[in-house]
């Protein structure tokens, strides 16, 4: 990432972004570029066609030097001065109308392209982030991911739009310059030099300021996400501690800094324009003065008028280009960091829609496994064999590494050293990515905290299955085995009752039983219970466990229990 922080940062970033645009957008982009080219060309014609109009007002005989107009006059048999004036004016109006219609079309198309490309890129970032393995997320700050997805997706459409507008500005710029050359070469070169110099100096001066602002805004965005996540994730404690003010103050502070930085970036983009506009007006008057005094030219007005229009167009494209640069430069930090997410590699098998399962036949073996979080050694030369159909219990004081061991068995964590073999296959080997996906699909995992969606009981038990495809009898069976059937039936809409956000309407024990019902509905060959019955009373726990154990002898169960009596019926007990 730090290699981006060099001189040509913007172009490198641009190139990398372009490489992420899907090929299917090429046609649309080419079409839009063609339209942009035509729009630019019409700017040339616009500027150039004003001169004949103005000339026809003041000294129409001069028009005869213009071949196109001569041709038109002859074609329509226009002879009188007045009809020539009307004709040139009509041509000018006609051209302006066409040109602006094309311009509107271009803007419309650009906005559409920006929307689809923006959406392509944002979806890809979300996809890349969500498809990262578990250990990636453990090492990564969630606030950073969320902030990137939210702010990144907010700005990316504007950035694409800005880039397209800049292309339009460059094309317009070139065409207007050609028109100005046609009107007066010296003035064209003179204004080009002055304007470019001014803008280059400003850009040189503002670049670091903008970069710093973009970094500040980036940091604050992450902070705001963190603040929001922490405050609403702990709302119970905040209410009890009455610490709302603390969060409000923090929020106000960072939000204000962010808004100020954004406003300043915006201002830096606009400010030079007023200065340069004044300069341009003054130069037009000065050019007029020069023409009047030294050349004693009687046709000053037409030339001045068209130069004025040309300069105004030139200045406008300069300004657009500059403002686009400010916009991008002021968001350079989020753009580079968004790119990191775009560049992430993912396991392509994750997105397979058919949930193929691993046909577990024999055993899961942990062979000489070492595991550490950073420097904290959790497992040392650990060996374990779990045979199909057995019930394994894991016990040990809290913090000993029970959940870690389970995560290693499931393939969510990867041993620092050693192997996890499922039916002899090393699931963590790169070439076995596909097998690992299948292995994931054959596991049901129930933890202490069950994640519930704000959907109906039925949808929460048949998790991830579209409503029409849910086998309601199986749902009911699973609910019976998990001893939650009677409770669900007692609610207003029974299995159609919604559970509330994150299951807020339910008790801890009810959530756990729904989790167990979900695992049973999935019908996996391996069931893992990580203190999944911790919130149940002794009697209910015993009944649930009995149901699970008597399920069928193909099911392999690995369970961690805080009550040792729960482990009574296990074939093997591991103590950590
Ligand atoms: N993501 C993590 N990063 C660093 N240390 C962790 C992480 N998760 C757990 N630990 C540490 O690893 C040890 C084992 O944790 P865990 O497997 O959750 O224990 P148990 O499930 O037995 O209570 C604990 O000391 C815990 O602090
Ligand atoms: Mg645990």
For this entry, give a set of tags.
576 residues, elongated, binds magnesium ion
Give your account of this protein's structure.
The chain is of the alpha/beta class and 576 residues long. It folds into 2 domains: 2-342, ABC transporter transmembrane region fold (Up-down Bundle); 363-575, 3-Layer(aba) Sandwich (Rossmann fold). It contains 18 helices and 9 strands. The strands form 2 sheets. It has a 5-stranded parallel β-sheet with strand order 6-7-8-3-9, with helices on both faces. A 4-stranded antiparallel β-sheet has the order 2-1-4-5, with helices on one face. The longest helix has 52 residues, at 244-295. The radius of gyration is 35 Å and the shape is elongated. The mean pLDDT is 87. The structure holds adenosine-5'-diphosphate and magnesium ion. Adenosine-5'-diphosphate is lined by residues 138, 373, 376, 378, 396, 398-404. It is found in: Cell membrane.
Which helices and strands occur, and which strands form pairs?
Elements: H1 9-19, H2 26-58, H3 67-75, H4 81-130, H5 134-139, H6 142-183, H7 185-233, H8 235-241, H9 244-295, H10 300-329, H11 332-342, E1 363-373, E2 376-387, E3 391-395, H12 402-410, E4 417-422, E5 425-426, H13 433-441, E6 443-446, H14 457-461, H15 472-481, H16 485-490, H17 508-522, E7 526-530, H18 538-549, E8 556-560, E9 572-575
Parallel strand pairs: 3-8, 3-9, 6-7, 7-8
Antiparallel strand pairs: 1-2, 1-4, 4-5
Helix pairs in contact: 1-11, 2-4, 2-6, 2-10, 4-6, 4-11, 6-7, 6-10, 6-11, 7-9, 7-10, 9-10, 15-17
Bound molecules: adenosine-5'-diphosphate (ADP) and magnesium ion.
